[in-house]
Amino acid sequence: MDWEIVIGLETHAQLSTESKIFSVSSTRYGAAANTQANEIDLALPGSLPVMNRGAVERAIQFGLAVGATIAPRSHFERKNYFYPDLPKNYQISQLEIPVVQGGVIRFFVGDEEKTVNLTRAHLEEDAGKSLHENFVGPHGESSTGIDLNRAGTPLLEIVSEPEMRSAAEAAAYARALHALVVWLGVCDGNMQEGSFRVDANVSVRPRGQREFGTRCEIKNVNSFRFLERAILYEARRQIELIEDGGKVVQETRLYDAERDETRSMRSKEDAHDYRYFPDPDLPPLIIAPEWIERVRADMPELPSQKRSRFEADLGLTPYDAAQLTMDRDTAAFFEKLAAALPQGQAKLAANWVLGELAAALNRDELEIAASPVSPEKLAGLLQRIVDGTISNKIARDVFAAMWETPASDADAIIEAKGLKQISDTGAIGAMVDEVLAAHPAIVEEYRAGKQKAFNSLVGQVMKLAKGKANPQQVNDLLKQKLG
């Protein structure tokens, strides 16, 4: 049977406020256990929560960025369930009226643009953390410790519609969402510290069937690679289960990266299981239009706006523009580089930022802000390609030298290594004649209609010229002489 995977993602983004959503406790990561939880976070008798204005403004920013509706009046409910690291035995969240409603995320899977609609994004508080390692009881038995520092940290839970149909699409959506919240500054996006966590709702159905299958939720995946692998495993597990005559049970599952498998954690609760009811200690959240406009005025240029500008003003393809606006530092680097080059060379700049520069950064595990080659120095190198001083191939060698010796510029390296491109027609013509005379068999292959033979002749000329001949002139002269 031909099966279709149906995927919806729920993403928890910890908001970048200095204090918690309902208290003044610090949200700083890495503090000693249980030193950042006060009486409000623990819901001690007589304590009352107070809404963090900064958390609301970050939610408004996100809503504006995705084209959502900001609710003028929203409410908080208590979501009742027991976790050992949830000291109140309930979580303050939003059910009936979330602060952000609707919106879209646009992204690329390969070179194909996709759009996923958002259902909602709501504010809530995080739970604490159970620590299952390095705790030994009095008799040598293993035990679990509870750290409540994270309890009350503000979260924005972003819920997508179940519109994704492949693991690759889900991972690309998650990357785009991650890039957006980091771009806005509403979340630091640190997945290792749990600032950005993804739950994947996965089901399968026969292709063409309209009704959804029974879904399972894969909880708290903290890497895009693991998200893709977890979805692939879970979809395969469900298909094999159904084809063997079994039945998928709605449940919450965990992904084990070492074994590359999901395993059952608990039965999946529905909304009625949480026994939501309005929080009596929190008034409705009122967001006036003036507040929304003040937030809008302070927002940076959005990735979508910058992407449109790169396409309209610089002539970039939608794909290149999207890749260059995945984070603010890359976009800023590219803009400085393009501004330093002659008009019409934005595509060359994009190719180098997304190609040679990105490869070097990945290899050395560097962020673009720490690049040893600045936009200005890279512009100096690309200018020598534009004016014909060096070829693109030689430019890669010069770039490698610049990377290793950041104090050097392109011109100094080109001069010191004698890398200037040969553009003298007479000199190149002589080399072409020599190659044609030395390789009559390849010439005959070309004249017999084998186009690959032409590329072989180009390669022989470039070898003779030690890579310094102007490639366009080599092509033109070869065609002329072979003709």
Summarize the structure.
The protein is 40% helix and 19% strand.
Describe the structure.
Helices cover 40% and strands 19% of the residues. It is built from 15 helices and 17 strands. The strands form four sheets. Strands 1, 2, 6, 7, 8, 11, 12, 13, 14 and 15 form a ten-stranded mixed beta sheet that branches. A three-stranded antiparallel beta sheet has the order 5-4-16, with no helix packed on it. Strand 7 and strand 8 (112-125) form a beta hairpin. Helix 7 packs across helix 8 (346-364) and helix 7 (328-339) packs across helix 9 (375-386).
Keywords:
483 residues; alpha+beta; 10-stranded mixed beta sheet; 3-stranded antiparallel beta sheet; 15 helices; elongated
Topology:
Blueprint: E1 3-14, H1 53-65, E2 69-70, E3 73-74, E4 77-80, E5 90-93, E6 100-101, E7 104-109, E8 112-125, E9 129-131, E10 145-147, E11 154-160, H2 167-184, E12 196-206, E13 216-221, H3 224-243, E14 251-256, E15 261-267, E16 277-278, E17 285-286, H4 289-298, H5 303-314, H6 318-324, H7 328-339, H8 346-364, H9 375-386, H10 392-404, H11 410-417, H12 425-438, H13 440-447, H14 452-464, H15 471-482
Helix pairs in contact: 2-3, 5-6, 6-8, 7-8, 7-9, 9-10, 12-14, 12-15, 13-14, 14-15
